[in-house]
Design goal:
This protein is an all-alpha fold. The protein has a domain of 179 residues: Cytochrome Bc1 Complex, Chain C, CATH 1.20.810. 72% of the residues lie in helices and 0% in strands. Helix 5 packs antiparallel against helix 7 and helix 7 runs antiparallel to helix 8. The longest helix has 32 residues. It starts with a helix and ends with a helix.
C-alpha cells in the first residue's frame, strides 16, 4: 500500500502541472532544497537555511508565529462581522444586539474576534520583550526592530479603533476620554484630535472614521509591515543567534586573529 502511494506521488511529480508549480522539486542536495524554498510563493519569505538551535522553542517561544495566528483569526472573524454591521448611528448598536440575540453563533464570532484582539496585543508585547531580552535588536537587525515597533503601534491602533465600533456607553466614553487626553498634546493636540474624530465630539463622523481605519487602512498597513518583517528576517540570516553561541564564535575569531 505504501509503495503504491509512493509510485502515485512519483508519477504526480513528473507531470507537467506539478513541475510548473514546483519547478526545482525537493531533491536530496542542499542546492535543491534551497531552490525549493526560493521558488515557492510562501516559503521564499523565510531563510533558505537557518541554525537548528534557532528553531528550538526556548529561543523564541514561537511568540511571533502566535501573533501572526492571532492576526489571521482577527481577519477571518472580522470579515463575517462586517457583513452584519453598519457604521452608522444608531444602527451600529442595534447590529451589536442582533449579533448577540439574532445572528446564529453571533456571540461566539464576536467574542472570538475580541479575545483574539486581546491575545494579539499581549503576544506582541511578549514577543518584543523576548526579542529585547535576547538582544535581537542589535546590528544587523536594528531595522527589523524598528519595523516591529511600528507593528506594535499598528496593533494598538487596531485595538483602539475597534473599541468604538459597538457604539455603546463604554465605547463612547472610552474614546471620549482617550481623545481628550490626545488634545492635551502641545501645539498639535487639538488638530490631531479633530482629524481623528472628524469634528470636536465623538459622533457619527468619528464612528465612520474609526470603522475605515479599523477595517481598511490599519489592516493593510499591518499586512505590508508584516511582509517587510518576514523579508528582513530572511535578509538578516534567519532568526537571531543564541547569545552564548555568538560569544563563543566571537571569542574563537579573536583567538584565530591573535
Amino acid at each position: 500500500m505504501a509503495a503504491t502511494k509512493q509510485d502515485t506521488l512519483g508519477r504526480l511529480r513528473e507531470t507537467r502541472v506539478w513541475q510548473s508549480v514546483f519547478r526545482s522539486g525537493w531533491g536530496d542536495s542542499n542546492l535543491h532544497r534551497a531552490l525549493a524554498v526560493q521558488q515557492n510563493l510562501f516559503l521564499h519569505l523565510f531563510p533558505a537555511k537557518m541554525r537548528r538551535r534557532s528553531l528550538d522553542i526556548g529561543v523564541t517561544w514561537y511568540l511571533g508565529t502566535l501573533t501572526l495566528v492571532a492576526f489571521f483569526i482577527l481577519v477571518a472573524t472580522g470579515i463575517p462581522l462586517m457583513l452584519y454591521y453598519h457604521p452608522s448611528v444608531p444602527q451600529a448598536y442595534a447590529d451589536m444586539k442582533d449579533l448577540q440575540f439574532v445572528v446564529s453563533a453571533g456571540v461566539f464570532l464576536r467574542n472570538l474576534h475580541r479575545w483574539a484582539a486581546h491575545a494579539m496585543v499581549l503576544l506582541v508585547f511578549a514577543h518584543m520583550a523576548r526579542v529585547f531580552y535576547r538582544g535581537a535588536y542589535r546590528p544587523p537587525r536594528e531595522f527589523n526592530w524598528v519595523v516591529g515597533v511600528v507593528l506594535l503601534l499598528v496593533t494598538l491602533f487596531l485595538s483602539y479603533t475597534g473599541y468604538l465600533l459597538p457604539w455603546d456607553q463604554l465605547a463612547f466614553w472610552a474614546i471620549t476620554v482617550g481623545s481628550n487626553i490626545l488634545s492635551s498634546v502641545p501645539v498639535m493636540g487639538l488638530k490631531i484630535r479633530f482629524l481623528m474624530l472628524g469634528g470636536n465630539t465623538v459622533n457619527a463622523n468619528a464612528l465612520l472614521r474609526f470603522y475605515v481605519l479599523h477595517c481598511v487602512i490599519l489592516p493593510l498597513a499591518a499586512v505590508a509591515f508584516i511582509g517587510v518583517h518576514f523579508w528582513r528576517i530572511r535578509k538578516d540570516g534567519g532568526l537571531y543567534r543564541d547569545g552564548h553561541a555568538a560569544a563563543r564564535a566571537a571569542e574563537s575569531g579573536e583567538q584565530r586573529h591573535g
